[in-house]
Amino acid sequence: MPVFGTLVVVGPGLIGSSVLRRAKARGDLAQRLIAVDSSEQVCARVRELGIADEATTDITTAVAQADCVMLCVPVGAMGAVAATVVPAMKSGAVLTDVGSTKVSVIEAITPSLRADIAYVPAHPMAGTEFSGPDAGLANLFEDRWCLLTPLACTTAQSLHDIRSLWERCGARLREMTPSHHDRVCAIVSHLPHLLAFTICGTADHLAAETRSEVLDFAASGFRDFTRIAASDPIMWRDIFLANKTALLEMLGRFMEDAKAMGRAIEEDDTAYIVSRIEEGRAIRKSLQENRQA
Amino acid sequence: MPVFGTLVVVGPGLIGSSVLRRAKARGDLAQRLIAVDSSEQVCARVRELGIADEATTDITTAVAQADCVMLCVPVGAMGAVAATVVPAMKSGAVLTDVGSTKVSVIEAITPSLRADIAYVPAHPMAGTEFSGPDAGLANLFEDRWCLLTPLACTTAQSLHDIRSLWERCGARLREMTPSHHDRVCAIVSHLPHLLAFTICGTADHLAAETRSEVLDFAASGFRDFTRIAASDPIMWRDIFLANKTALLEMLGRFMEDAKAMGRAIEEDDTAYIVSRIEEGRAIRKSLQENRQA
Predict the structure, then answer these.
(1) Which residues form the Prephenate/arogenate dehydrogenase domain (chains A, B) (predicted)?
(2) What is the ipTM score, two decimals?
(3) Which residues of chain A does B250 touch, with a Cβ-Cβ cutoff of 8 Å?
């Protein structure tokens, strides 16, 4: 029994096209799948891939048919897209999003909401360094967390349905408040990306002296950072700005800790250095026990 | 035709046992392989694994038979081990090491050197998060760089032989000065490790509030950092202290860049943020073209 009649995915990129692939593969996420993108080229590619029953640039006609609209656009575009989508939706339909930040996305979408539309904010914590409709994977969400931040306007039925959808994608679910979500994601995801981008920049600025060697001799440490840093620039710019408060707090804490580590190295404080390294190992071990590593 | 008669590997850990496995697999690195470790337990494990012809805690008897002694101990132990090893070596033998830093290792070993022993400092840039004799892999060095920092006391023949040994391990070779080596490694390897350890500590210190969620929801960004951070604490403590000058310089540059990124986010400077992210992608692309990613 499909969760929804018609599911409309707005923005069939990495996340959106993964949901579509999963829905095609299982058949019980929705009876009918429509992909919407502002680019005719992306729509054509979705048609070629055969991952939706229909792919169109006509957003209002598409969402008018939807029992559920899933917004998979960059977080900075959520507000504008919701302003177009929500007025065209049919009464009783469910709106959901997959944004990596929740407080600012909810703030951006809220002015467009209607009393007869249930909104369920969600964040599937999965991804790769690739983007676009070709990057999706039917099993992208398998064993990954999907965080849900239900609001007053989230009905029990809509929450149940969106939970079912993500469960059928293979995700593990957890509910929390939007602000708690943003703090957790700042430390586990946004700050690591900020640091990865920054160290690539620092390396790039050594250009004159050692740039070619940096490229030649990237040992495993640096290689892992560049994998993180290969992600989509616009998406990450939006995420950084959308989660500014929590991210800058975590960056501040990190900078204090990095300064302390620098001082310990300067002063040969071996006990401090080892205790910090041990903390990293302990966290790693917990992650492995938690099937997250 | 084997490069050496008897090769003695002091410290059959990840790197040392990988060299032994390669030597066993090919047969043309040395005619006879001896592993030396201060731990009888490690020696017993090397015997069980069958990756050396002999495994012993008797370091002076072992190195007296060596045509080449390869020091694979933590960089902080190189000086003390060399002081024991070099006086026991036979005239004309070759001494080499695999330390991740070169200036301080060379300084530590130099007082023990003899005119009739050729010393070839080397650094195979390969590794995993695992350590000990069980962690080694015969193909660990395949397509990885091995950096050589020859000195005045490095004879042409000894350099040729050590180059042959690493070529037969599958490594790509490059020669440079010790200080240049240390600067390059500070940015491509040591600083990334320092940042990875630090962010794990920062996350750990959130304990009271959000620690369990951090563990639960480690998205891909944080997961990659913890993989780096899972490395051996003593080894990394030694590397940080051994490459203090170059590492603190690179940390200083990085901190300036991270502060600038924080300011850009604070001030919604989207152009700056995107330009930094683009740099990361450009470096990633170069690495992929260079077969390092």
Answers:
(1) 5-293
(2) 0.81
(3) 202
